Amino acid sequence: MAGLFSGSPKHEAPEPLEGPVVATVVGGTVLWFVLFLVQLPFYGWFDDHGHLWWVWTCLAGGGLGLIGIWYVRRRDAALERGRVLPPQDPAPPVV
Q1: What pLDDT is recorded for position 16?
Q2: DSSP 8-state secondary structure symbol assigned to residue 17
Q3: C-alpha distances in Å from residue 94, one per residue of 63, 89, 91
Q4: Model-level pTM?
Q5: How far apart are CA 46 and CA 58, in angstroms?
Q6: How far apart are alpha carbons 61 and 44 in whole angstroms?
Q7: Which of the two residues, 49 and 6, has the higher pLDDT score?
Q8: Distances from the Cα of 82 to the Cαs of 22, 77, 78, 94, in angstroms?
């Protein structure tokens, strides 16, 4: 299997897409929590029909979204720090 893709052409990796990442993740997280809350009144119906996993999937999506918000906010802060601070020259070797 190692040679399966050896004949495929090599391409440069595309530049990463940048945009309103934090807003996108926050919007998605809010959507997951809203879907969870909307389904709660119908908990019994979901349970009776074997679709209870729908409710818990929405809650899990909201929880993972909170982790995503934390991650993208830290990422944006790190990118901003990288833009503000000039790159440091490495220390000269000690002889």
Answers
A1: 79
A2: P
A3: 49, 15, 9
A4: 0.71
A5: 13
A6: 21
A7: 49
A8: 18, 9, 6, 27
- For residues 5 and 95, give the distance between their C-alpha atoms in angstroms, rounded to a whole number: 47
What backbone phi and psi angles, to 5 degrees, belong to 11?
A: -130, 150
Residue type, 14: P
Res 15 pLDDT > 90: no
Convert the pLDDT of each residue in 17-35 to its tens digit. Answer: 788 999 999 999 999 999 9
List helix spans (H) across 1-95. Answer: 21-39, 43-48, 52-84
Q: Is the pLDDT of residue 48 over 80?
A: yes
Query: Is residue 72 within 8 Å of residue 22, measured between CB atoms?
Result: yes
Dihedral over alpha carbons 35, 26, 17, 67 (to 10 degrees): -90
Alpha carbon distance 67, 69 (integer Å): 5
